[in-house]
Design goal:
Elements: E1 2-5, H1 11-23, E2 27-32, E3 37-42, H2 51-54, E4 59-63, E5 83-85, E6 88-90, E7 96-100, H3 107-119, E8 124-126, H4 144-157, E9 161-164, H5 171-177, E10 180-183, H6 191-197, E11 204-207, H7 214-226, E12 232-236, H8 254-261, E13 266-268, H9 270-274, H10 277-289, E14 294-298, H11 316-332
Parallel strand pairs: 7-8, 7-14, 8-9, 9-10, 10-11, 11-12, 12-13, 13-14
Antiparallel strand pairs: 1-3, 1-4, 2-3, 5-6
Helix pairs in contact: 3-4, 6-7, 10-11
The chain binds phosphoenolpyruvate and manganese (II) ion.
Phosphoenolpyruvate is lined by residues 102, 128, 132, 184-186, 207, 237, 269, 272.
Length: 337
Amino acid sequence: MIIVLRAGATEGEVRQIEDTIRAKGLSAHISRGVERTIIGAIGDERKIDTASFEGLPFVDKVLRILAPFRLVSREFQKEDTVITVRGKTVGGKRLALFAGPCSVEDRGMMVGIGERVAACGATFLRGGAFKPRTSPYAFQGLGEEGLKYLAEAREATGLPVATELMDPRDLDLVARYADVIQIGARNMQNFRLLTEVGKLDKPVILKRGMSATIQEWLMSAEYIASEGNQKIILCERGIRTYEPATRNTFDVSSIPVVKSLSHLPVVADPSHAAGKVTLVEPLAAAAIAAGADGLMIEVHHQPSMALSDGPQSLKPDAFEQMVLRLRRVAEAVGRNL
Ligand code: PEP
Ligand code: MN
């Protein structure tokens, strides 16, 4: 960390900064110029909050050198993380394909859609039993009943299942059924929830919050990793901007940016980014081309009757056709789908 003092800072003020740096266990390197004094804090600067200096009247600016996240950073681990669940992988050359309905609605649809997406090459089955809905009057999910249908669909298809956890009080229940736990966009900064899933030995999909910066997203991943769980799958699902033509704005640039900053796998969810079925495929193609490690796609047998997110859900036939075309995109960038 570099602390640039204002012109005219006194020796006493320089010493005050030095003392604060030393008290945190770092050493201080002082460089006196003609007009300004610059102080370098040498050591693990994550132990120091920039705010300890920023508020001082004799400090001009404070610059961090290291990213504030550590365990999830590329500096900490050079090689890409590859997560294996029931023989399926996330990360590496083969793209992961999470597919299934937004909500688990009944047993028949979970098994039926599960079998269809499995036949098309999906590697994980998704479906929400606890749904984060904007309206308290909208369908909230089937809860444990839904988790049971998911588990039955796993038996029928052999696909590992991913489902959302919204509340730490449901953790034991959800963890009993799920192979992969999803933390939704709205809970990306629910730090208690992140801490609890960090104690599990189970992969976690961490969706990007709809107004979260990349750094905030990675800090949330750090919460999970710092509790011991390194099996984290990041998911870009679009951010909220001023543009109303799409449900969210798909931030395709976050994929290569995150892959350069972190060793964690990044999957893309074009369904929630687009909000419209016609936009899912072009966004999915862009995500693969940008280096995503997988996709999450909502599929429903009868989208007009879906209890949530029907307008962005592909019918199984359309999903099948899309996967065939996306395979060629994946091959063009040296990946398999
Ligand atoms: C979902 O996956 O159905 C969902 C609610 O996603 P998000 O948290 O990205 O909105
Ligand atoms: Mn959804």
